[in-house]
């Protein structure tokens, strides 16, 4: 199948799977569709470890001082939960931005990495790890994503075929151009792997007091080395990362659970409501009430869907 034919088929399927603007979840836990019918200005986002495949449209992300584009028939790999800024550059009612987000199962990725390393007898070429990168879909990965979209139109095929196709997609990514970042995130003794473990710890315990000294000690690094490695991976400091995680989670609680700003700020670890409101408005550009109202208009959640342990935003 040609790239043009594959894209046309993906767009037709996404029109069925993602009929509403925002996020639409499906029968596979963690898999979600993203649709935007208009351009959106630059703003903060926080993605879980995932693979994002763009079927149509054009987005741009900003991490630290670098910008990266991801558009039709490209995929984005985030090997660690990463806060950055993003904007939608091309999306209209007639040609909306359409993408699918696939969570990365780190345990399954570790099993696949071990199996492929054994099969290739150590001949896996080392690829320098990066926190986030966009790469064109090759034919094997593109075909696997298309088969996943086709399976997701049928509840029976979703249940029986979906998990196997997700495993294949993870294998294709792991053995492709972006496999180095995933392998590094799985290697607990590497600096990248140690920071990845620290990020998962922050997401598990963000509502509790966390300090850099404890994180550095758990990583087996000095505070200075941990801080430098953390910034190299995330382009931000540990405490700034923790703050952004708390603010994103508070927004999610207000949008999905209907919490007030006062309730949400306490749930995510803030002791002062006024401090929370100030930092929230500085971060998102709107008050908690304004942002929650706006997000409810954008998000489309399927009934009964399981929420991610991480935070996501359009």
Automatic annotation (TrEMBL):
Gene3D superfamilies, per the entry: Homeodomain-like
Domain HTH araC/xylS-type: 196-294
UniProtKB keywords: Transcription, Transcription regulation
InterPro entries named among the record's database cross-references: Homeodomain-like_sf (IPR009057), HTH_AraC (IPR018060), Tscrpt_reg_HTH_AraC_N (IPR009594)
SUPFAM superfamilies attached to this UniProt entry: Homeodomain-like
GO MF: DNA-binding transcription factor activity; sequence-specific DNA binding
Protein name, as recorded: Transcriptional regulator, AraC family
Naturally occurring in which organism (per UniProt): Pseudoduganella lurida
Phylogenetic lineage: Bacteria, Pseudomonadati, Pseudomonadota, Betaproteobacteria, Burkholderiales
């Amino acid at each position: 199948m040609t790239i043009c034919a594959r894209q046309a088929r993906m767009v037709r399927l996404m029109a069925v799977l993602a009929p509403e603007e925002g996020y639409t979840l499906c029968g596979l836990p963690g898999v979600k569709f993203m649709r935007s019918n208009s351009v959106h200005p630059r703003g903060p986002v926080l993605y879980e470890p995932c693979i994002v495949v763009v079927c149509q449209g054009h987005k741009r992300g900003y991490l630290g001082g670098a910008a990266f584009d991801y558009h039709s028939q490209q995929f984005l790999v985030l090997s660690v939960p990463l806060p950055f800024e993003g904007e939608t550059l091309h999306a209209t009612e007639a040609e909306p931005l359409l993408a699918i987000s696939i969570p990365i199962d780190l345990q399954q990725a570790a099993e696949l990495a071990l199996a492929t390393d054994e099969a290739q007898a150590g001949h896996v070429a080392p690829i320098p790890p990066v926190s986030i990168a966009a790469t064109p879909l090759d034919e094997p990965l593109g075909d696997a994503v298309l088969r996943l979209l086709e399976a997701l139109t049928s509840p029976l095929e979703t249940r029986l075929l979906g998990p196997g196709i997700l495993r294949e997609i993870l294998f294709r990514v792991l053995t492709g151009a972006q496999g180095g970042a995933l392998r590094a995130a799985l290697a607990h003794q590497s600096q990248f792997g140690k920071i990845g473990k620290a990020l998962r710890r922050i997401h598990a315990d963000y509502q509790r007091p966390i300090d850099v000294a404890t994180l550095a000690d758990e990583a087996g690094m000095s505070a200075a080395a941990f801080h430098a490695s953390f910034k190299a991976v995330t382009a931000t400091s540990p405490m700034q990362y923790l703050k952004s995680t708390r603010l994103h989670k508070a927004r999610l609680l207000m949008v999905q659970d209907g919490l007030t700003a006062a309730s949400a700020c306490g749930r995510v670890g803030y002791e002062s409501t006024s401090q929370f409101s100030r930092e929230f408005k500085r971060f998102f550009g709107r008050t908690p009430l304004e942002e929650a109202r706006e997000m409810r208009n954008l998000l489309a959640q399927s009934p009964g869907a399981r929420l991610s342990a991480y935070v996501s935003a359009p």
